[in-house]
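#onboarding

Welcome to the new folks! Below is a worked example of what a typical request in this channel looks like: someone posts a single protein sequence, and someone else replies with the predicted structure as tokens. Don't worry about understanding the tokens yet, we'll cover that in week two.

Example request:
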Amino acid sequence: MFVNTGPVRMIRYALACVATVLGLVVVPSSAGAADPGFVDADGIHVVSTQQLDTRLWALSVSSPALGRAVRVRVLLPDGYAGNPTARYPVLYLFHGTSGGAPDWTTIGNAEATTADKPLIVVMPDAGFDNDGGGWFTNWFDTHTKLGLSAWETFHVTQLVPWVDANLRTLADRAHRAIAGLSQGGFGAMSYAARHPDTFAIAASFSGAPEIDRDAVVIPFSTAIIEATAAALDGVEPDAMFGSRTAHEVNWQAHDPATLIANLRWTDMYMWTGDGVPGPLDTGTPDPSAMAIEGATHVSTVLFHSHLQEAGIPSHYTDYGSGTHTWPYWSRDFQQFVDPLMSAFANPAPTPTAITYQSADTHWSQWGWSAVHTGNGFSTVTSANAAGFTVRTAGTLAVTTPPFYVPGSSHSVAVTRGSSSSITHVNADAAGRLHITVRNGIVPSTATVLVGG
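Example response:
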């Protein structure tokens, strides 16, 4: 999509249209200077690149996490080439079910919406060849016909550092946001909850930010996700998260509403309609667009209520009448961009004490890391240099950030109920403490205090 921002660009657009008719290739005069020179990094191989206009690049990249090439569109800010020392915040913007990387620029008007913003927008595929999509998780079944399908690894562990390696980004949490529509709205909130030290801002446009916490949500979220797998992706229904009966904890481990405590320091935005045709609907109402918006509305309302219960602020817009269609998502995005830029300009401070909940056997957030040997979730609460609280079953081996003088000795008091034990732990060469908390087979709480 070309952006009409002045006579020069209008002329270039006209030339491009003529070239298309004549079968020629016309590259804007500034295009070569704008070439970022995309290269391989962080497990991502660049298969091909194509400049679509002065701001927009279409890439094909591959990764062992996915096993095949997928598309990434990169939208650079105006003046990127002419300001070689400038650095920019980044928005990762996701499509929905049966969509693809081009959607936000070919349908969602993202290029015009961001035309005057000092912002890099990265729009990756979240599924193969516009199929149903991967639901933003490393698939439970890694042996389907679609291959490994480790979407979370690709999007978060590989794509984010790859973008920072290739583009002049402000490569920190405070200047990194994530957003998406529908399934992509779930993905934005799930990634933000599972990786709170990576994304400072998250937005959902008609998304499903809850898939498990409330009983009323479980039947339709299960039906939608399993239908996506079977009918659209052509794999078994349980491929993504495992079965509800045998692997419920994995569903919970990716549910933003279950992980809500992890989002306390995330600036969250949500837009939702109720599924009744509204002012942007034209022609005969689409029953499926009405039903899906109604379902995502329930999910969003419940998620927002849990944020309120937890005392976690958010920006919430329930606009009433509206269906699950692009005119509403384009409007949502337009309404989001100015607050997004304001949030980038005025970032919140890094929390001084963190809380993180996970069902993963290994996790690393905010400079803390842990290895969990046991079943279910582990939660570290109010963690800082003075200590933390652990709730888990089994054993949790915690490594702190480098708070301490390398080699210094510290008393570590672990209290469970009325019992307490004290050990002495030396900081490693980086100034980190390694503390192991051993609970029983039933989840219980232990308080860890670190002395000088």
